[in-house]
Input
Amino acid sequence: MKIELEKLSPHDRYKLLAGFIVPRPIAFVSTCNSKGHNNLAPYSSFNYVGEDPPTIVLGLQNRKDGSLKDTTQNIRETGEFVINFVDESLIEQQNLCAIDFPPEIDESEITGIALQTSTIVKPNRIKQSPVAMECRRLVMLELGPERIICIGEVLVIHARDDLINPETYYVNEELYKPIGRIYGSLYVRLNDVFQLPRVLTYEDWKKMGDSPKPKPVKWE
Output
């Protein structure tokens, strides 16, 4: 099937892109405005894009009338935000925070989420989150009337002590269990991890034989 996206409505494009590009990590974003008012909102148009500088990308969606949502307005106003990652203990709260509450309502108070002071940026981080990244805005790109892309630099990472090896900085994949987003009301747990060693160089590949071919993964 061939589908030309320019002929589809934005909603149908969303169904295809969000349905195929899965799973996506959930960025439970905490921001505050210039008066210090807290805001929490989840976004799954989110990912890591580089390490030097350490950068992430966040897809922010405007309201249908083109007005900015609180997260976008706060990042534009202050230039700072925190990416809090979601595990099973936070999944219900992030779902509730997806409601487009009025700016004067503090989602942390409604959901009972405990906030903790960040070390560099002004927005608080979620105390319960297994991992939280303090970020500073690098650039915001307006792609259309309903979509803004924010590229941010990660300044500080807060992680539960058992999730990181302090000597190697490897993440403990057995204990780190973030929830991923598919689309709509569909989510996925990270509970089926497998290992597939990489051949790092062309020279290593040549050492595998005259006609090295990929071996099928043995699924259990």
The mean pLDDT is 90. The chain has one domain: 5-206. DSSP finds five helices and twelve strands in the chain.
